[in-house]
Design goal:
The protein is built from 7 helices and no strands. With 138 residues, the protein is mainly alpha-helical. It is elongated.
């Protein structure tokens, strides 16, 4: 970046700051300027989004749905199913995750796990129902 480009960018920044409410910048800079200056009530909404816990019994509810329903449900509420909450849900299901996984990747991991769990339970119940004298291989 050249000096004149930087000067133009600083000029645009100054113009943007003049259009915002005249508030103290120190607390905003400490909190990372999370876009709260641009929207009224942004702090309350951001705090509500961060503090919204996952409902109890969610794992059981998801295990009763098919894969398409689980995926639709996890995509339906963006404020509840944030990447952090999806990571917490994966941890509850004892799934390995990475902090770098995207929201869609976490949803995919959860859906695949629930599908695999259903397949394992079907296989176990089928094996339990087989008569003792039957040959599984032929």
């Amino acid at each position: 970046m050249k000096t004149h480009d930087l000067a133009d960018n600083l000029e645009m920044l100054a113009h943007l700051l003049r259009r915002m409410p005249n508030v103290d910048l120190d607390p905003k800079l400490a909190s990372g300027l999370q876009g709260d200056l641009l929207e009224q009530g942004g702090e309350k909404r951001a705090a509500a989004r961060l503090n919204r816990p996952l409902p109890d019994g969610l794992e059981l509810k998801l295990s009763e749905m098919n894969a398409a329903e689980v995926e639709a449900y996890l995509v339906s509420d963006e404020d509840l199913f944030t990447a952090a909450n999806l990571s917490e849900l994966a941890a509850r299901l004892k799934l390995p995750t990475s902090k770098r996984q995207s929201k869609s990747a976490l949803i995919n991991v959860i859906v695949r796990h629930l599908e695999a769990s259903k397949m394992h339970s079907i296989i176990r119940s089928t094996k339990a129902e087989l008569p003792e004298g039957s040959n599984e291989g032929s």
